Every structure is written in C-alpha cells, then in structure tokens.
Amino acid sequence: MNFMRKSLLSITAEIGILFYSLFKWIFLAILAGVVVGAAASLFLLILHESIDFVLKYSPWSFVLLPAGLVVSTYLVKTFAPDAAGHGTEKVIEAIHMRSGRIPIVVVPVKLLATVITLSVGGSAGKEGPCAQIGAGITSSMASLFRFNDIDRKKLVVCGISAGFASIFGTPIAGAIFGLEVLFIGQVLYDVLLPSFISGMVAFQTASLLGVEYFKFPVELHATFSESGFVLAIASGVFFGLVALLHIEIIKAVEGLSGKTSIGPYKKAFYGGCLLLVLGLLFGTRYFGLGTETIEQALSGKDVPLLAFFLKPIFTSITLSVGGSGGILTPTFFVGATSGVTFAKIFGLDPMLFACIGFVAVLAGAANTPIAATIMAVELFGSSVTAYAAASCIVAFVISGHRSVYPSQILARPKS
Amino acid sequence: MNFMRKSLLSITAEIGILFYSLFKWIFLAILAGVVVGAAASLFLLILHESIDFVLKYSPWSFVLLPAGLVVSTYLVKTFAPDAAGHGTEKVIEAIHMRSGRIPIVVVPVKLLATVITLSVGGSAGKEGPCAQIGAGITSSMASLFRFNDIDRKKLVVCGISAGFASIFGTPIAGAIFGLEVLFIGQVLYDVLLPSFISGMVAFQTASLLGVEYFKFPVELHATFSESGFVLAIASGVFFGLVALLHIEIIKAVEGLSGKTSIGPYKKAFYGGCLLLVLGLLFGTRYFGLGTETIEQALSGKDVPLLAFFLKPIFTSITLSVGGSGGILTPTFFVGATSGVTFAKIFGLDPMLFACIGFVAVLAGAANTPIAATIMAVELFGSSVTAYAAASCIVAFVISGHRSVYPSQILARPKS
Question: Would you call A190 and B185 a contact, using CB atoms and an 8 Å cutoff?
Fold first, then answer.
C-alpha cells in the first residue's frame, strides 16, 4: 500500500497548490471584473451621452468631423502615442511585445479620443477601446502588485476579456473572445478560468450600473434541416469572402494613408472632409457606430445592398487619419448588412442570415470561430447554434491567415 | 497601383488553394460522416438489441458476467490486441503514436467485444468504442486514398468526431470533443471544419437510421443570479474533486490488476465473480451502461448518495480484467449522480446540479471544458450556459494535469 500512500500524498500536495492558485486568481478575476466593468460603464455612459448631445444638432453636427479628427489626433499624439490605431490591435501588440505592459494614461486618453471621434460621426467601434481600457487598468493593477511578466500577462488578458464582456453584452463570448483573439488557432486555456470570471463579473457590474445592450427583436427559432445546413455552409463561404474584403480594404486604405506625406493634423482635417463628401454621396448611416443600421439588418429590414462594402471604407479612413476607436462594431455592421445582401440575392430569410453574418464575419475577420459561435447562442438562442457554427467555421477557414489584427500570431494553421 | 495588382494576384492564388482544400475536405468529411454514422448506428442497434435480449432473463442473466468477460478477453487477445483497453484512450494513443493508423479488424472485434461486455452487465461505456470504430474506418479510408500521415491524421480525427457526435446525440459538442480531447489545453483548429461537418453528417445519418438519444424530461429554465453563479463555481470545485477521484480509482484498480500474476482468462473469470459479489452488495444499477440511473439523476430523482463512488469501481474492474468498452458513459453516470449528492448535501435543486455535474465531471476527467459547455447548451438549452461554463471550467482547473486518458498530451498548462 506504499504506492497508494505516496500517490495520496502527491495528490494532496497538488490539490493544495491548485487551491492556492485557484483562490488567488478567483480573487484577482473578481477584482478586475468589478473595476473594468465600472470603467467600461463610465466609458459607455459618456459615449452615449455625447453622441446623443451632438445628434440633437444633426445633420449639421457632422461638419464637426474634420475638427473632431484633428482634436483626436492631438490628444493621442500628445498624451499617449501608444493609444494610436485601433483598440484591439494595440492590445494584442502589447500582450505579444511587452508582456501586456500598457501605461495607465492610455485609459483616459483613449476614452476621450474615442468619445470625440464617435460623437462627431467618425466611423469606428467601441469594443476595442473598451478592451484597451480593461488592459490599461489591469496592467496598472499588475504593477501595483509587483507581478512578474507571466502573472501580468494573465491579469491583462482578464482585463481584455472583462472589457469585451462588458461591452458585447454576451459575457461568455466576450471572455472567450479575449482568449481566442490573441493567436490564430489557439485558445489560452491557462487563463480560461480567471478570464471567464472577469468577464461574467464585469458584465454583471455593467448591467447593475445601468448599461443596456443591443436589443434583439425576438429570439430566433430556426428548425434544423439538411438544406438549411448546406445553405449555412455556403453562407460561410460568402461571409469569409466579405471578411477578407473587409480586411483588405482596411489594409489598403491604411497603406495609402501611410504613404501620403502631409502632416498629421492636415491629414486628419482632409480625412474628415473626405468623409463628409462620402457621407453626402452615400448617406449618413456610415458615420458613427452604425448601431441603427445593425439593428435594422438584424430585424430583417432593408439596408443598402452595398452597405457592407462602404462601411469599411468609412472606417478605414476614420482610423487611418487619426480617429480613435475600434473595428469590431464596424465588423458587426459589415456582417449583419452583408447577411441581408446574401439573403436578398438568393431569396432567403434576411433576418436569419443577418444574424448569421453578424457572427460569421467576426469569426472570419478576427479569427475567433469559437467565441463567435458562443456569441450566436447568447444573442439568438440555441436553435441557431448549428447554422451559426457552420457559417463561422467556414468563414474562419476562408479568410485564410489574414486578420483585421496584424499583430495576431499564427499558432496553428487553419487547414 | 502596382502593389494593389500584386496583392490582388496573391489573394486570388490564395483563395484558389483554399477552395481546393475546402472542397476536398468537405467531400471527405461528408463521406466520413455518412460511413461512420451508419456504422455507429449498426453498433448501437446490435448493442441495444443484445442488451434487451439478455435483460429479459434478468437478474439471472448477470451470472453470465464471468463467462462474458472471458469471451471478450478471448476475442480481443486473439483477433485485435490493439483493441484492448478503453476506447477513447486507444484512439488518442493511435493518433499520437502512429499518426492515426488503426487496423480495420479493430472495428468488428471492438464492436462484438463491447456488445458482449455490456450485455452481460459489464460496467463500461459505448462512446469510446464508437470513436474507435470511427477511427478504424477512416484510417482504412486514408490507406485506400494513399494519404500521407498529415492527411491521415486529419481524416481519423474526423472519424473520431463523427463517432462521438453520432453517439452523444449532441453533434457540435461531439465534434468539438474529438478536437479537444487529444491534447490538454489545445483545440485542433486545423481540423475544425471537417470534424464539425463529419460530426453533423454522422449525427444526421444516425438519426435518419433511427438511432434515439437520451431523453431529457424538460428543458431547464435557470434564471441567472449572482448567488447561483457562486454556487456553480463551488459545484465546479466539488465536481473537479469527483473527477479526480474517478481518475484515481480507475488508475489504482488498473495498477492492482496489472500487478496480479494470474493469466488473462482466469483474471477475467475472477473479475466477473468479484463484480457479481459487488452487485449483490450494492445493487445491479452499477452493471452495464447505467442509462436508467443517469436518467433518474437528470430528472432530479433519488439515487444512492455514494453512487458516484461505486460506479468507477465497477467500471475499472470490468475494463482491467478484459472487458471491452469506454469510460464516458460511466463518467456521465458519475457526473449526474454526484450532482444529486451535491444538491442533497447543500439543499439545492437536484435536477439542475445533476445536469451541471453531467458535463462538469466530463470537463474535469477528460479535460474538455469547451466541448462540455457546448454539450450543456445542446442538451439543456441556453439558459444554463453560464452556470455550466463556470462549473466546467473550475472542474477542469481542479482536476489538474491528470486525465482518464493517460495518452493525452499536455499542450498548455491549466493555470
């Protein structure tokens, strides 16, 4: 029985270490969740108040665009050059290049610059900045606790997950997104537990503080059929190509903008003027977050057939001339509207495919098929799971090893 | 515009390669799904007919146990020594050690030996053998197509996913389980698409052929609350320890059995007699698959408080003396009954915690938190997602780097 005693001892020791680590990380995760959830709520409150305030003077308020972009450029250049560019991308870069070190000044600067960019009508997202705020706060917490690089990275990943969870309104998908987005083809299982708890706590905190999320008109009741499944796979091919287009437009515009040799403030001003001209041509729905258009698409209402093509142009101009913000909301915009387009072309249910496109283009553009599928379950109910998973996985494969986030590291090829 | 032309060309070439690979693997995945789904249906049909036939003579039929185990030992030793041991473990070993090479003779031998073991009352599961059948068939397909080792491995993983999907009755969880179970802390993203399609097609094939799945009395409607979430996390600690106990009992009994120096047929016979004695002492519910007890637990009915402790003893004796079968059904048995025990101890809803235990012990024992969470959504509806995810992830962390499958390779530590 000696071997049993030894095995019992080793199990006891192992469990002891596990429990210590477990309680430490549950505590840290809850702390990070509460703080990031509260900060995200503050960000969203200021953002929505500002957007509403400016919208009162709409459509004339849009003439503020060039000036707004200049101010955003000034803020970021002067106080936090690290906060330039779109949110999630900078966070991924910080994790991979600097063990998650993000200066705390990024938090207020990013918050303010994003609020200004979005309120004057710049086309950008709010998720990335929120992840950046979460990462900035947890990075400072790690410095306060004198964490080593490994623990710092883990805590910052929790902060990212908390940021996403509190802004997506889908806590599980948000938490998993934070774990899946850092690499292509890898989930960070070692941070699974604390990230998940941070995400859930941040979401609950934000909800308690009165944050309201996307309202979906009705839970989908899709009945599974073989032909429906084949269509879902076909839609995945389409959404994968749309994701690819989205990625390439952003890259091309950023490349063109990087090649122009005018100074940053002039660039911001001219970029703003260009956006105004585009807005006159194609309408104001491409300005700002575009929440209304996303909701229209998800309720199966009509949207312009080429909306999914125009949104990335507006977004890439906004971000490449100095606007601050993320690209996830625009990605949702592209996904939902391209779903309506797909449904119109093939005579299908626009609402169902807007919902599938919403998650599938995310899966393809950000390389997060698991988080996107879970998001579908959280948003649209479990009846849509098989279709959403099929479309997300195909879109993920189709987009290849490209990404809206150039800093993502390829951990495992897709096929 | 030269760089745009070049970039366009490279995208076109990339898409071409992608589409070729896509169509090849969709075709292979559908083929594997249909064949494995049909074979799994045949296996299940023979299994259930045999169990029903023998049960008519119950309880006297259990005296066949020693003889049945001797026959199972004879079959496996003579015709397919590779098919010895529990199913999933052998499949994981084949993938890691022999690029998925599994002789086709394993398929009929495993089928027959498992049917005999389970019909006479041996305590074992049907999932592992089914995964082994799927792997054996796809390995032969790969030889037929003269695949290289990389493609063979991928196709065999599809076969495994198809086997699980057609027997779990939860196609998405089944497919993901096949991708998550090979390593600890790694999902095989490069086989995500074909595995998923194989799983869906196999499940549809089995359903069309009349396979029926676990019936759950009613979809759960859990309303999320903070205290419920804390309880779910606490239950994860309990279920993780239960998973650990399950793993250690199996390991200890296998170790003891390996140390006895009597011949294999005598061992099978004495093992069968020992099981009969245990059955007389603790009842017949621990014989066979134990489906009835699992269903009782999941409907919130009373089960013995220590059922979760007795089942692994019956199972490990059955498997270590030459019985053929898997350990997933026993793991579900342990999970569901330990959930009832947990609920009784703390005065909670036994049905809810039986459902959570069902997936959480799986997550802890097999190290598959994502597949287990998806399984909860597929079986119990999306209202239980947050609780199930919390419990599964905690159980996964608690069980440490142990596993019911010693061949699992550690790809990423859990914390």
Answer: yes
